[in-house]
Amino acid sequence: MSGEAGTATLNAAALPASRPRRTSVHRPPSAGARYRASKRSIEENYLATVYRWDEDRVRREFARLRWGSHTEMPCPHCGTIDEHTWTAAREDWRCVFCRKYFDVTTNTLLDSCKRSLQSVYVQTLLWSCGSAGIPALTLREMVGTVSYNTAFSLTARLREGLVRGQNTGLIAGVVEIDGAHASGHDAAGKRGRPLRQQQPKTVEEADAKAKAIVDAFNAKQAKRNLSAEQKKAAKTEQVELRDQGAVRDPNTGQVLPLNRRMVITLRRRSGNPGDGSVWTKVGVGMAETPEVVEHLATRHVLIPESVLATDEGVAFKKLGKQFRLHQTVNHGETLVGPDGEHNNLAESFTARQDRAEAGIYLNVEPKYLMDYACETAFREDHRRVPAPVRTAKLLFWALNVGRSHYWRGYTHGKNRKHELLVPEQLPVGSSSGPAPREPGSEMDGRPPR
Ligand SMILES: [Zn+2]
C-alpha cells in the first residue's frame, strides 16, 4: 500500500506544473472489498426469511447443525442413536432407552438458553456480520428487547465455541507465524474522565502542565547518561517487575508491562494466489519467546513437512530449523523480500485484531484476550462467505463442543479461574463484581437474598 502511495507522489511531482496536482491516490479495491460489494455475498432478505420460520423450522436447522439429521439423533444423556419420541407438549424429544427428555441445546454451550431458538439464530446471524466485531450492547440495540446480560452471554458463548472448536487441529503447507503486542495500555487511568476535565483551568495549572511536559522530555534525554546509582535504581525496578511475573521482550530486551500480552498468529497460505488465507490458529503468550512460539507450532502445525514464513524475530530462529524451509523477511527494510518472502497474511490478522481491540471492544482484558483473538481469527477466515454460512459455522461449534466451561453461572458471580496462556494457563481471580459469599461467612450488613 505505502509503496503505491509513494510511487504516485513521485509521478505527480514529475508532471508539468500546469496540470493540477492529484490530491488522492486511486487504489483498486482489495479482493475482500470486492467480495463484500458483490452479489455473491448477499442472500437476499435472509433476515426476513428467518423471521418467517416457526420454532420447529429453526429447531430443524439446529438439529441439522448438531446431529446432521432432525429425525435420528444420539441421545445427549446416554448416546443411544434412534428415532426418539417427539413430545409436543414439552417441545422436547424423549429418549427411547433412558426415558430422559432432551432438546437441540441440551449439553451444549447454549444449554441454559432461556430464549427462543429463533432469537438465538437471529442474534448469531447479526453478530457474525461485523468485519472486526460487534459489541453486545450494539447487538442488544439491534434485536430490541433482550437484556444486556443475555446478549453478552450469547456472544461470550459463541466465542467459547471458537476457542474450543475452531482453534484446534493442525495446519500444513506454507505457514506464517507472527506475534503482535496486545493489551497493556494504561487505559484505566483515563477512563471516565472527559478531556475537558484534564485541561488546566488556571494559569498556574497551565504552567505546571507545560513544565511537566518539558521535564518529561528532559528526563527522557537524560536517560542516555545516567549515573551509576540511577542505573542501579532502574535495574532494581525492572527486577521487581520481573519478580511479579513480567517478562522481557526477546527482540528489544525491554521488560514489558505486567498486563502486556502477545497474540501469536499461525496462518496457512491458500494455494491460490490472491485468495489469502482461510486457516488461522491463534495463541496468547506473555512475550514472543522461542518457548511460546515452539509450543504453539507443535500444537497447530505439521512441522517437518511445512514451510515457515516469519519476520526476523529471534523467537523463530531455532524453530525454523525444524521446518522443511524457513523464509524470513526483514521488516526494517521491506515488506516483501527479494524472493517473495513475506508474512503479510499474519500481519493482516494483526490489523483486524488491532481494530477490534482499539475500535470496537476497547480495553480487552488479558484474561479474555484469547477469546477475542479467536473471534478475530473466525472473522478473518470467513471474510468471503455469506452470512448464513457464517451463522451455521458459529452455531456448529457452539453445539458441538459440549457444555460451557467458561460462562456457566457467570451472571451469578462465577468466573473463569484462569487465563488461557501458552505454554501454561495462568490462574487469575475475578476482575469485577462482588466476591462470591462463602456459606457461613460473616455477613457484611446486607440481608441474605
Ligand atoms: Zn438416552
UniProtKB/TrEMBL annotation:
SMART domains: DDE_Tnp_IS1595. Transmembrane segments: none annotated. It holds the Pfam family DDE_Tnp_IS1595. Residues 170-381 form the ISXO2-like transposase domain. InterPro entries: Tnp_ISXO2-like. Residues 1-34, 183-204, 225-253, 424-449 are annotated as: Disordered. Residues 229-246, 439-449 have a biased composition (Basic and acidic residues). This is Transposase. It comes from Pelomonas lactea. The lineage of its organism: Bacteria, Pseudomonadati, Pseudomonadota, Betaproteobacteria, Burkholderiales.
